[in-house]
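Researcher: We are triaging several targets before committing to wet-lab work. For this one, the compound of interest is adenosine-5'-diphosphate. I'm pasting the protein sequence and the ligand SMILES. What I need is the predicted three-dimensional arrangement of the protein with the ligand bound, expressed as structure tokens, so it can go straight into our comparison scripts without reformatting.
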Amino acid sequence: MTTQDNLTGAARPDSVATPSTTPWTDAGQQPFIEFQSVTKRFGNFTAVDDVSLKIYRGELFAILGGSGCGKSTLLRMLAGFEKPSSGRILIDSVDVTDLPPYERPVNMMFQSYAVFPHMSVEQNIAYGLKKEKLPKTEIKQRVAEMLELVQLPELAKRKPGQLSGGQLQRVALARALIKRPKVLLLDEPLAALDKKLREQTQFELMNLQDQLGITFVVVTHDQEEAMTLATRIAVMNAGNFIQTGTPSEVYEFPQNHFVADFFGSINIFDATVVSSTGDQVTVALEGSGTEICTRHALPLSSGSRCMVGVRPEKLLISKQQPTLEGHTITRGVVEDLAYYGNRSIYRVRSKNGRVIQVSAQNYQRSAALLLEWDDEVFLSWESNCSVVLTE
Ligand SMILES: Nc1ncnc2c1ncn2[C@@H]1O[C@H](COP(=O)(O)OP(=O)(O)O)[C@@H](O)[C@H]1O
Ligand SMILES: [Mg+2]
């Protein structure tokens, strides 16, 4: 019995039960899916531009980017619905570039769910196996297993029209999983669900993936979704990968302005590189000349211009001057504030005219009441909480 045959998630073979939790950090690990310099052109238009990527077995990998950046095209090439203009695609060490979809060990769950409206839930789920002409008893047993897995046994006889968005999504998922693919591809799987349901379904997807040990590749334009779901995220823009990393790497250590901005808010200051050794860099903020020493993954030459980013939640705001070692301090005036219950957002105009955003937890009831419009305040942050960004 192979891993994919074992859908109930009971005992897994040893080789799968003890995988490294961060295989991408281990140079000796064999990637499970590999894009090798893949390009896809439609006429003169390049939708995917010389992209290379390694995804490891058991990952829940997210491809994240705005509309039209090439995410679906990339996924469709992995599924076999599009052929690369150049480059190769490997799955489990097999070059699948020239294989048709049905000969690849992958299955895709489409954005539209693509369920048959005239068929019941169980008929929809059984469809793929019926087409393969599997014995009736086996189909019945596997459909029952799937219904259990996606928690829909009571709704087996219903038609799609009688289901909620979340239930439909689970039918589509069951339909894709019943064929026991090694890789499940999901194109914007939660886009049709409302916010609350989306959050709940994210956890269901993660549990399911954990239970089955199947490699998931998810395409999404929603950064929060990618952050919640994924082992790693590839951030895409205009057919290229801008940065690939774990959710905390791309959030805490974005390499450039695009990625920093894509994941939530960030305050950006212009700066000049003073010196750089190893992954430590010292930069001087423009205007104030304040020097900051922090970490940066790429080498930067002295004298070159860069940007320093600080996330709003890393900033402390206070009326009294803070006396904290290793903190960068700047002054300003509260120009705007918004109270959200659990936290408040302040927009502070600094002495050199720049607006800086601060997000503060209201950890005390009175905390939100302490600051008012036009208050003079100090802003401070720990230097190693800032990131140096290029472009
Ligand atoms: N079959 C096609 N013919 C021509 N252009 C296409 C085709 N498929 C996608 N494109 C174009 O390629 C770009 C990337 O599309 P897509 O991969 O669907 O983006 P995303 O999924 O990131 O929104 C878009 O500009 C789109 O118009
Ligand atoms: Mg798309």
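Researcher: Any quick observations?
Model: The mean pLDDT is 88.
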